Amino acid sequence: MTEGTQARPERVMVLEPDAERRQMLAQTLMQSGFRCLMADSVHDALPFYQDRQDSACMLTILNARLPWCESVELLSRAQENDWPVLFLTAANVAHLQSLFDLPCDALVHPFSPKQLMNAVENLLLLSQSLLRAGPLRLDTLHHRVTMAGEHLTLTAQEFALLEVLVKTPGAAVSRETLLRTAWGYQDLGETRTVDVHIQRLRRKLGKSCIETVYKTGYKLKMA
To answer: Which of 45, 110, 114, 208 could form a Cys-Cys staple with 39, CB 3.0–4.6 A?
Structure first.
């Protein structure tokens, strides 16, 4: 295992058995300011996914031709931390996203250094745009919502309302705050619009997912 450091805080694990290609990938990334870790096997890379004291985000660049029986544990660890994964492959592997609930993408050989960096930056942007509360996930970049992997169709106002609730986990949010934050309203004389949209969200998420807090507002409840 070798490591290179640059000023940029994001870490990238380059998991590639071919030494020449592994070095080329790491060099390209470090020239763009990333801190790189390199491994030629899942066995060597796993300790970096098992260290719970290190909570810094780590993007994984993974050769998709590595044995699946070995990669599955690493991908499970990445999923637990919401760490993104970029698969290097000869064919699209988008179906893997349905197997692991994590931000991922695929880069198909052959690719240029510029294509590599574009894929990394886009994946980091996607990862940073994800909000999670239990089985609920919001992709604020693309305005997508899934519950336990199942896609939900929300209106723009429902999405904005849910985003505020997800960003304040376990806390009661007043109707007035929801009007200001989710709708941008300054005139707070009418708060019934919040109640109407909460009822619609409950029908889509489940009645027990949003709790009414007496004389206060609403609170998101997710296991």
So the answer is: 45
| Exposure of 153 in the CB half-sphere (CA atoms within 13 A) | 0
DSSP secondary structure string for all residues of 132-165: EETTEEEETTTTEEEETTEEE---HHHHHHHHHH
pLDDT recorded at residue 202: 94
Give the span between the Cα atoms of 213 and 174, in whole angstroms: 9
Nearest to 40 by CA among 61, 22, 64: 22
pTM over 0.90: no
Question: Is the bond leading into 110 cis (omega within 30 degrees of zero)?
Answer: yes
CB 171 within 8 A of CB 219: yes
**CA gap 205, 147 in Å, rounded:** 8
Closest CA to 96 of 106, 107, 108, 83: 106
Exposed, middle or buried, 187 (CB in 10 Å: 0-12/13-18/19+)?
A: exposed
Check if the beta carbon of residue 46 is closer than 8 Å to that of residue 66: no
- In whole angstroms, how large is the CA radius of gyration of the chain? 21
Measuring CA to CA, which residue among 93, 79, 94, 181 is closest to residue 130? Answer: 79
